[in-house]
Amino acid sequence: MTPAPWGPLSGPGHAVALDVLLDGPLSRAELSRRLDLSAGSLTRLTKPLLDAGLLVEVDDSPAGSRVGRPSRPLDIVPEAHHFVGVKITGDTAHGVLTTLRAGVVDSADAPLDDHSPFTVADTVAGLISELAAGAPADVTAVGVALGGHVVEASDVVRAPFLGWNDVPLGDMLRSRTGLPVVVSNDVTALTEATHWFGAGHGAATFSLITVGAGVGFGLVAHGRLVTNEDASLGLASHHPLDPSGPPCFAGHRGCAVAMLTIRSIATQVSVALGREVAYDEALDLAEAGDPAARRVVDDAGRALGRFVAAAANFTMPERVVLGGEGVRLADVAREAMQAGLRADRDPLAHDPVIATLSPSFTEWARGAAVIAIQTFVLGT
């Protein structure tokens, strides 16, 4: 049976389908326990979902087993729907094709040599078409994420890396692709992907810190993204971390942007060595024991530890997830990061579990796809 389209659900049926999507396959007994439903109530709720193909039964019995009644947990078919996610940076559009569970099926990139909104929209639409052409079936929806302030899941109010103000990107892409398109701040999208299908899944509360071209912070508390209309302004970017650190572009000395961004770290090492040094080379030199590079990288590592401590002190998360294209800093400066974390924590406090995401831009593009998946499934 080909599963019917998954539309927004409501009430207990929605809870059943969502639990199976996020954690399936799940036995009926487990679903009954999670949702506090009787066996009869669960059967009544799942029958129309099974009849519609939204849920399927899978055989959970060991191969060759013939003893007793076989277990038939409930699951969804991830390949029943496909989504495109695109992360826009200052120089490239990174795209992925995913399943309903955000499994990456394909990926592709497109350079952005011109930042004019119309040219970027044309390039992104072409990337979406390229990825959609390789999908086994029609693409259900598209998510686009970028570093900037986004409102109404469509309009880019401000995107500094692109030099944009008030760009109706969602409408521009919908008219070019004929597909449903949602637009999101990139850190918000990555936080939701980490929440639903990543290192934050299963944690009632976790914080996400990203380091790269910028610095980002996301928070999930009691299983929900903490957000408001100002969330995509990057409010944590200028959190003070080192009063003796370098100034940022806004004149804040030793703030998160000044201490943790790729450009800042590479620039400091370049000045110290008297030659141009890229970020990865700066980290390589630090690992090899170069004194100047080691000092800069360890200063950044201590600052990152203080940022983690601030997140832990204010939000009390079960986990802190570190991500972004500059996240290798956490490995190269691990001892300094731990020292910064301990310096700003009560000696009796338990350190949060720290998880690290891949630095690949595929992770960001997958986050954009998850925003489309959430919109499709939840209808929000």
TrEMBL record:
What name does this protein carry?
A: ROK family transcriptional regulator
Regarding protein family, the annotation reads: Belongs to the ROK (NagC/XylR) family.
Q: Which domain of life is it from?
A: Bacteria
* PANTHER family (UniProt xref): BIFUNCTIONAL UDP-N-ACETYLGLUCOSAMINE 2-EPIMERASE_N-ACETYLMANNOSAMINE KINASE, ROK (REPRESSOR, ORF, KINASE) FAMILY
Offer one Pfam family short name for this entry: ROK
Q: Which InterPro entries match?
A: ATPase_NBD (IPR043129), ROK (IPR000600), WH-like_DNA-bd_sf (IPR036388), WH_DNA-bd_sf (IPR036390)
The record lists the organism as Isoptericola haloaureus
